Amino acid sequence: MDETELDDGVIVGQIVSGQKDLFRLLVRQHEKAVFGMGISFFRNTDDASDFVQEVFIKAYRSLSNFEGRSRFSTWLYKIAYNTALNEVNRRKEYHSLAEETADKLIHSGETPEWHTLRNIAKEAVRAAIKDLPERFRICVDLFYFYDRSYQEIEAITGIPVNTIKSHVFRSKIILREKLDDLKRSVV
Predict the structure, then answer these.
(1) Which of 78, 81, 159, 179 is most exposed by smallest CB count within 10 Å?
(2) Spatial contact of 96 and 129, defined as CB atoms under 8 Å apart
């Protein structure tokens, strides 16, 4: 079997058994997702790159603690999330990945009016998401932009599943109300 086809859990077992060089496979497999989380928290590539390094160093040092009760990615994202939260609490900042994603929504060939309306809508969504309580934004980001299940979000954040569901649901209501208000004021 090719190294790249190995399951994360198998790779972890081999690393813990002494094949330390296989850690590069885990890094290669998960660095983009961890970098994405870093971008959403820190909003610049230098800090996100430093964050990725810090997360993988912590993961490597704690690899023997991985018990395999969850997916490796969930375990790793928990380390990343806690690392990011500690740094955010130190810096007092958090930026939703939705802000970054909204920038990519503009398509070529739009009319100037369409472009203007798109920018107004994009800014409204950014403002609405930015106004969400931090605990809501984190749940929304992990659910919609990182495609994590409620159970994985619980494992990552320590927030109970029902609370996560409530945060996501309440966020949708808040965002809908804010955007409906904007729509009524524009029309």
Answers:
(1) 179
(2) yes
